[in-house]
Design brief:
The chain has helices at about 1-20, 20-35, 40-45, 55-90, 110-125, 135-140, 175-180, 220-235, 290-295, 310-320, 335; strands at about 125-130, 135, 160, 165, 185-195, 205-215, 245-250, 255-260, 280-290, 305-310. It has about 350 residues and is of the alpha+beta class. A hairpin with a 2-residue loop joins β7 and β8 (about 255-260). It starts with a helix and ends with a helix. Bound molecules: 3,4-dihydroxyphenylalanine (DAH). The site of 3,4-dihydroxyphenylalanine has 11 residues, from β9 and β10.
């Protein structure tokens, strides 16, 4: 039995040397020290020994068991340390390295000013309406008192899809859509994209944005229109902004006006920004034409209303001193980052 024990120790030591993983070590533990292990078998067979031999062999067997058990534990601890060190090394963070900067985008200047505008009118009790970019001739022109062959159509060179289907040239068709579906009192704005077949230059783009405004109720007058527009202009350009109203003509409003803002660049003296005028046109508006009210089933004897249309790009250009409309649509990050 003595020889058997030293043989087990010798072989086990060889195995231990070769064991390269924690799992392999665990297998060795089972093989020698487990319930059915080789060493355990010897300990179990000790009953057959003489009283003299038993304590000697017992002591030797325990020695071998302790030796193997310690060796296995020690080697396991070494391996665990190696593994842990490797893991720590691979996961090491160099806190002296400069951080990776997250690029956070910002709102497009058109969106930013539109949001400010929307906030201002919502505070005045307006609601927001949205409608189709592809319109029928009826909504875009006819119902707005612009019949076929009316010269007003010439000023809005249009993209026709079919004879009676057009990319809307203005947001004014939203007046009709809202009035057809809503009983007065009405207070809405309708922002959106509009399309005209203009050639591109510093002040023209085939795609741009308008914001339409419409108020219909009993007793609405030109004074309401002027007061509302003045408050809106100040909300966009600040309380110092000076504006003036001029008579104008639109087929769907009577009387009609255009509003100008005193030139932000020269303060009204006349410069290249305002082309020597001292004033910059910012919107058109007027009292909704009785014919237009009638087209939508609203009785002009009972109700009156005002409407206005603002070009968003022009508003934003004036606000930030931008001198070329193309910048809005070129998606140059260097430009867009500034707002
Ligand atoms: N739709 C006009 C345009 O594109 C702007 C406009 C003028 C809108 C007068 C209105 C208005 O609602 O009353 O030139």
């Amino acid at each position: 039995m003595k020889e058997q024990l030293s043989e087990i120790k010798k072989v086990a030591e060889e195995h231990l040397k070769k064991a390269q993983s924690v799992d392999a070590l665990e297998e060795l533990r089972v093989k020698y020290l487990g319930k059915k292990g080789e060493l355990t078998a010897i300990l179990k067979g000790m009953g057959a020994l003489s009283a003299e031999e038993r304590p000697k062999i017992g002591a030797l067997a325990n020695e071998v068991r302790e030796f193997l058990s310690n060796e296995i534990d020690q080697k396991k601890a070494e391996m665990a340390k190696i593994l842990r060190d490797a893991k720590l090394k691979s996961e090491m963070i160099d806190i002296t390295m400069p951080g990776k900067k997250q690029e956070i985008g910002n709102l497009h200047p058109l969106t930013k000013v539109l949001n400010e505008f929307t906030d201002a009118v919502i505070g005045m009790g307006f609601q927001i309406a949205e409608g189709p970019d592809v319109e029928t001739d009826y909504y875009n022109f006819e119902a707005l008192n612009i019949p076929k062959n009316h010269p007003a159509r010439d000023t809005q060179d249009s993209f026709y899809i079919e004879d009676n289907i057009v990319l809307r040239t203005q947001t004014s068709p939203m007046q009709i859509r809202v009035m057809e579906n809503t009983k007065p009192p009405i207070r809405v704005i309708a922002p959106g994209m509009v399309y005209r077949s203009d050639s591109v230059d510093a002040t023209h783009s085939p795609i741009f944005h308008q914001i339409e405004g419409l108020v219909v109720d009993k007793g609405i007058t030109m004074a309401d229109l002027k007061g509302t527009l003045e408050a809106l202009i100040k909300s966009i350009y600040g309380n110092d902004a000076v504006c003036r109203f001029r008579p104008h003509h639109f087929p769907f409003t009577e009387p009609s006006l255009e509003a100008d803002r005193q030139c932000f660049s020269c303060g009204g003296k006349g410069c290249s920004v305002c082309k020597g005028e001292g004033w910059i046109e910012i919107l058109g508006g007027g009292m909704v034409h009785p014919k237009v009210l009638k087209n939508c089933g609203i009785d002009p004897e009972i109700y009156s209303g005002f409407a206005f249309g603002i070009g968003l790009e022009r508003l934003v250009m004036g606000r930030y001193g931008i001198n070329d409309i193309r910048l809005f649509f070129e998606n140059d990050v260097k430009f867009l980052k500034q707002f």
